[in-house]
Amino acid sequence: MFKNVIVKKPGKSYVNGLTTSDLGEPNYDKLLVQHEAYIEALKQCKVTVKELPASEDFPDSTFVEDTAVLTPDFAVITNPGAPSRNAEIQEMEPVLKEFYTDIRYIKAPGTLDGGDVLQIDDHFYIGISARTNETGATQLKKILESRGYKATIVPLKEFFHLKTGVAYLGNNLIVAAREFIDHPDFTQYDKIIVSDENEYSANCIRVNDYVIIPKGYPETKKQMNDREYQTIEVEMTEFQKHDGGLSCLSLRF
């Protein structure tokens, strides 16, 4: 069960942030409405939400997930791979110290984005991507294993971040798209398979009694409802324009 969630309000500079998409420029007013709806969805899941103020110096800093990996007992502050985002960890560190006394760090030349880290019970999967390198992934693996967790490093072939294409819903069930449908590291899990045209909906988050999913993907929602998961839909169009998904926008612990 999650008790706390950290989110960060998008600044006006968000529209100048990093993106690989061709979906157009975000509408800032609409973005704020969508972010507020995201917060309300989290509150519906019975968690305490700590909202951090916007940072105009860091256009992408609303994507707080990339700054840390959190467990019940300790936090790991990452070393984000994009140079323009790396200093976001300096703002997140004092916030995490409000909740944790045991904090570890990923150190250069290692890089790590939290979006490349998926926890499935006591097993962490760490993606190697354009933002997370092998050195950073290996550092995190050693930290986790030193505390009794299992860890597997997964080189990515198609997705921007690991959690862009796979999510865990509990009860041995994952949501999988493209390269993760038949991936050898995930064969032991039951799967909700997401079609290519619904790929964006693979990035969803289980928060206590609900699964929060992006709005506009009825096929994915039906598969979850058929398995008796309660779903909450949130409009995500303005975040999608900058490669952002539901998991990116919060740290949940």
SS strand fraction: 25-35%
Overall strand count: 15
In the residues, how many domains can be counted? 1
Low-pLDDT ranges: none
CATH architecture: 5-stranded Propeller
**Radius of gyration over C-alpha positions, nearest whole angstrom:** 17 Å
CATH superfamily: L-arginine/glycine Amidinotransferase, Chain A
Count of runs of 4 or more consecutive helical residues: 5
CATH class: Alpha Beta
**How far apart lie the N and C ends?**
8 Å
Task: Look up the CATH topology.
Answer: L-arginine/glycine Amidinotransferase, Chain A
Shape: globular
Note the run of SSEs as H and E: EHEEEHEEEHEEEEEEHEHE
Name the structural class. Answer: alpha/beta
Strand order in space, largest sheet = 2-1-15
Largest sheet: 3 strands, mixed
Rounded mean pLDDT score:
97
Considering DSSP H and I runs of 4 or more, what fraction of the residues is helical?
10-25%
